[in-house]
Amino acid sequence: MAEIRLEALAHSYLESPCKPEDYAIREMNHIWEQGGAYALLGPSGCGKSTLLNIISGLLTPSEGHVKFDQKTVNGLEPNQRNIAQVFQFPVVYDSMSVFDNLAFPLRNLKYPKDKIDQKVKEIADVLDLTALLNRRANHLTADEKQKVSMGRGLVRDDVSAILFDEPLTVIDPHLKWKLRRKLKQIHEKFNITMVYVTHDQLEASTFADKIALMYQGQIVQFGTPQELFETPEHTFVGYFIGSPGMNIIEVDLKGSNFIFDDIKLPLADYLDPAAIDILCKKEAPNLKIGIRPEFIKITNNVSQCDNQPCFECNVLDIENLGTYKIATLQLGQQKIKARIAEDAFVPTEKAMISFPKRWLKIYLDEYLFREKNL
């Protein structure tokens, strides 16, 4: 197992890139620690697979270095990096049995027969493939083939890391949860450095200890699933994580208030004096406020707003999702989503809402505003 370190790494598919938009991977410095379970999360086209292929050696970066345990591996071929990679679609040898597919990497490395038998049976047991060991791979279902493909990556105990490139794409939805749990159990058992690429936030959250969320070729936040949900460092994190995503509203700064659609949010209710002073000194700041639907407080009268600014909204829609409801509310010209617990007050035509100080986030140039970072 290895620590994977990216130093000043950048990549462009153009011969002479000259602006940030020319890069598929914009300059980044990042560390995946030895033995960690990580997810590389983001929408299609954000650079996830490009980054994974750079780490595995399938692609040479335009700039910067990839290091395994402090050793630069830019010049090494994939087979020299001691990396196992599981791809989006299963890669198996149809003419071989499941046992022979799993044993193939070990035989290439000249493992002794008893060691091969031991490792194949161990991985087959973990992946529920024991009953299929003697079956030819061309008789397997798509999800069984993908388990074999994953097993080939997991069977070696000397790999530096295992990279998964959206490995559950072809798996039936009802089996995805089971396979995610299997991967988590394997990680806990063998303590292998794992990097799991996906566009699905549920897959990322259930598999990874930490998530690297990518947007436009950059890692805009790296943290636990809880950190990405509760404290989005970038407006895109707020938008992408959660269902529905964070409510994000463009605001102006006038005097001592945030203003949108003639609605005022007093700065003093959300920022301390030093932060207000720093923000007011900015010229034409690009400001947004954000709050997750889960954290909006809905009441039926002003007295229940806990001394926070309280606003009357029109109720546009209530969507009943069984264990909770999603309300769509009109505040000024903004449509705001609010999540309502199963046994909570449900408004009809009008509702009073407030934004608790702890959960209202302020973004300057798309990044979370913090006095200490300025």
What secondary-structure arrangement, pairings included, does this model have?
Layout: E1 4-11, E2 25-32, E3 37-41, H1 48-56, E4 63-68, E5 71-72, E6 83-86, H2 98-108, H3 113-126, H4 142-154, E7 161-165, H5 173-190, E8 194-198, H6 201-207, E9 210-215, E10 218-223, H7 225-230, H8 235-240, E11 247-254, E12 257-260, E13 263-266, H9 273-280, E14 287-291, E15 297-299, E16 310-320, E17 324-331, E18 334-341, E19 350-354, E20 361-364, E21 367-368
Parallel strand pairs: 3-8, 3-9, 6-7, 7-8
Antiparallel strand pairs: 1-2, 1-4, 4-5, 9-10, 11-12, 11-14, 12-13, 14-20, 15-19, 16-17, 16-19, 17-18, 20-21
Helix pairs in contact: 2-3, 2-4
Q: How would you describe this protein?
A:
By secondary structure, the chain is of the alpha+beta class. The protein has 2 domains: 4-239, P-loop containing nucleotide triphosphate hydrolases (Rossmann fold, 3-Layer(aba) Sandwich), CATH 3.40.50; 248-368, Nucleic acid-binding proteins (OB fold (Dihydrolipoamide Acetyltransferase, E2P), Beta Barrel), CATH 2.40.50. Helix content is 25%, strand content 31%. The protein contains 9 helices and 21 strands. The chain has helices spanning 48-56, 98-108, 113-126, 142-154, 173-190, 201-207, 225-230, 235-240, 273-280, and strands at 4-11, 25-32, 37-41, 63-68, 71-72, 83-86, 161-165, 194-198, 210-215, 218-223, 247-254, 257-260, 263-266, 287-291, 297-299, 310-320, 324-331, 334-341, 350-354, 361-364, 367-368. It has a 6-stranded mixed sheet with strand order 6-7-8-3-9-10, sandwiched between helices. Strands 13-12-11-14-20-21 form a 6-stranded antiparallel sheet. The protein has a 5-stranded antiparallel sheet with strand order 15-19-16-17-18, with no helix packed on it. β9 and β10 form a beta hairpin. α2 (98-108) crosses α3 and α2 packs parallel to α4 (142-154). The longest helix has 18 residues, at 173-190. It is globular, with a radius of gyration of 25 Å. The model has no long low-confidence stretch (mean pLDDT 90).
